[in-house]
């Protein structure tokens, strides 16, 4: 017999909730809003309870994350799209009101972006030119509404092969700060994403910040995205480039990363090595060879064939390098 869902009850739960439900033990969250599907018929229906916690302090969030192992929701722009699959009956921890996860701090050796910083907040921040590429990517994440809600950590944790934030953060040698109640660790962006929608994030952990070394932040950078239309488009190929010259205008650090052409966005180490030592001018594009993109493993899908993606990647790499040389941040190719 199917279960009968007789009533939906939406209310703010008191901090001393009814006993007997292990998910509703009193916690430090400001409020726990419970949308509870109540059934008097079958016990499993009574478990179909969506707990929604919205703390304003990081320690509260970490405590809840450790105790109830919730689904973490930041801007919700990825989660809500897959809502039927992702937002099941389990508890949800909304971290969007935690001030400690917001903002960008500039230190001597690094620039630290709060994990809950939205794309719009990043675009509005005054940052060195090494961030021009990341800002150009931010401006192409969906629409302005999506940029106002979507966060940088959400983009990384969702781990889509086409995530636009990943290639620029790879070129910036980004490192995630990850916390749980009582632990703290750092993981390079390059290691954090392990496959299509797979990361090293463990249950109970939150990405609290992304740290960028200062030296790379002073470079010249760009981001280019190829899509099937001009606006609100998923990348068929995306490329980020970052070049740091010395005083004689020779490249001393080069980073090039390609997104949407493999399960995880990849840097092109052989090309990067070929760029170091060259004069930072338009002739840099001559260094790009077909073999530099040979390691990409794009898929055939509705947006483009694997062959098209590989050809496009090579061309986009050239254009992204040129944009960085000329001080153009990029955007849609
Ligand atoms: C119409 C539309 C267009 C879009 N266009 C683009 C696009 O062009 N390019 C692009 O790259 N993306 C695009 N996206 C996807 C999405 O907007 C971005 O990936 C965004 O950055 C996700 O951030 P969020 O805060 O909304 O993540 P959420 O949806 O809140 O969360 C995503 C995942 O990350 C986890 N998570 C979030 N924050 C943390 C944290 N601090 N610690 C631990 N786990 C966390 C969540 O549990 C979830 O698994 C689009 C989405 C929509 C709906």
UniProtKB/TrEMBL annotation:
Q: What InterPro entries does the entry give?
A: CO_DH_flav_C, CO_DH_flav_C_dom_sf, Diverse_Substr_Oxidored, FAD-bd_PCMH, FAD-bd_PCMH-like_sf, FAD-bd_PCMH_sub2, Mopterin_DH_FAD-bd
Q: Which SUPFAM superfamilies match?
A: CO dehydrogenase flavoprotein C-terminal domain-like, FAD-binding/transporter-associated domain-like
Q: Which residues form the FAD-binding PCMH-type domain?
A: 44-217
Do the record's keywords include Oxidoreductase?
yes
Question: What are the entry keywords?
Answer: FAD, Flavoprotein, Oxidoreductase
Among the Pfam families in the record, one is FAD_binding_5
The molecule here is called Xanthine dehydrogenase family protein subunit M
Origin organism is Dongia sedimenti
């Amino acid at each position: 017999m199917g279960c009968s869902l007789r009533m939906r009850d939406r209310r703010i739960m008191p901090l001393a909730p009814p006993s007997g439900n292990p998910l509703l033990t009193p916690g430090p969250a400001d409020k726990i809003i419970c949308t509870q599907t109540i059934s008097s018929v079958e016990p499993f229906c009574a478990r179909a309870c969506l707990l929604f916690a919205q703390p304003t302090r990081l320690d509260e969030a970490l405590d809840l994350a450790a105790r109830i192992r919730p689904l973490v929701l930041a801007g919700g722009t990825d989660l809500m799209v897959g809502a039927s699959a992702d937002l099941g009956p389990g508890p949800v921890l909304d971290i969007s009101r935690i001030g400690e996860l917001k903002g960008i701090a500039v230190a001597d050796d690094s620039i630290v972006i709060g994990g809950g910083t939205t794309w719009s907040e990043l675009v509005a921040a005054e940052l060195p030119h090494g961030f021009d590429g990341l800002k150009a990517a931010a401006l192409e994440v969906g629409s302005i509404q999506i940029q106002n809600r979507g966060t940088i950590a959400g983009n990384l944790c969702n781990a889509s092969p086409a995530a636009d934030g990943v290639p620029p953060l790879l070129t910036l040698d980004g490192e995630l700060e990850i916390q749980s109640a009582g632990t703290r660790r750092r993981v390079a962006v390059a290691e954090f994403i392990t496959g299509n929608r797979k990361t090293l994030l463990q249950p109970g952990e939150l990405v609290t910040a992304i740290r960028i070394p200062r030296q790379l932040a002073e470079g010249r950078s760009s981001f280019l995205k190829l899509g099937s239309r001009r606006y609100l488009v998923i990348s068929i190929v995306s490329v980020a480039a970052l070049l740091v010259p010395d005083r004689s205008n020779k490249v001393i650090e080069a980073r090039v990363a390609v997104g949407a052409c493999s399960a995880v966005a990849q840097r092109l180490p052989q090309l990067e090595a070929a760029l170091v030592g060259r004069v930072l001018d338009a002739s840099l594009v001559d260094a790009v060879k077909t073999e530099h993109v040979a390691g990409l493993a794009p898929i055939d899908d509705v947006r483009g064939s694997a062959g098209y993606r590989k050809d496009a990647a090579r061309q986009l790499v050239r254009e992204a390098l040129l944009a960085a040389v000329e001080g153009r941040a990029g955007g849609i190719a």
